Amino acid sequence: MPMKGRGEGQLREIDRWEHGVGWLAYPDEAMQRASHAVEIDGDVWVFDPVDAPGIDDLFAEFGDVAGVVVGLDRHKRHAAAVATRHDVPVYVASWMTDVADELDAPVERFGTTLADSGFETFRVVDRTVPPWQEVGFYHPDYSLLFVPEALGTVEYFCAPGERLGVHPMLRPFPPRRVLTRYDPERLLVGHGAGVSENAGRAMRTALSDARSNLPGAYLRALKSMLSN
Question: Which InterPro entries does this chain map to (predicted)?
Fold first, then answer.
């Protein structure tokens, strides 16, 4: 199983709900890069997309694409290509550096809210060593939280017995304070399928156990890397 899939993708839906859907473009890759589309008043907001045949039809089930969003400095992925295809901008947080210059598409900056989408935005991680700039998105009407990288359900994020884990690099000092301000019913992540019920409780458990479960998580991550 490769860490990251290449070539033409093969669409697999995840996280389908009344107002959105997620997908994996390369279901067999170890990284399980997840992308999401969320409908708000007939507008579709696309988060961290990895392109795949059929995603435009997927968007059309919910409405017209209003914007494409980059939630992590490393998640430029296919944001520019998807935005260009739908003639919309790529939205990048005002405090994120370098990302906009690397996108071959018009860019709109956002602050504490994502345009008129109703999403509140906040800094999950903002540091230069090692480089990591990550934005979180919360929609109160949907009780929906999207965390692009700090949390994930893919195997190498999780210690044995965990359903949701903290990114291996953040386990020693997980972003508890900023994330536990929220108590979402639904959580979307950038690697793996999300949590569709009682997500706040799952998130608090993952954050509180991040350090104590660190040895098991690191061993599993190492095994995952060695097997790919």
Answer: RibonucZ/Hydroxyglut_hydro
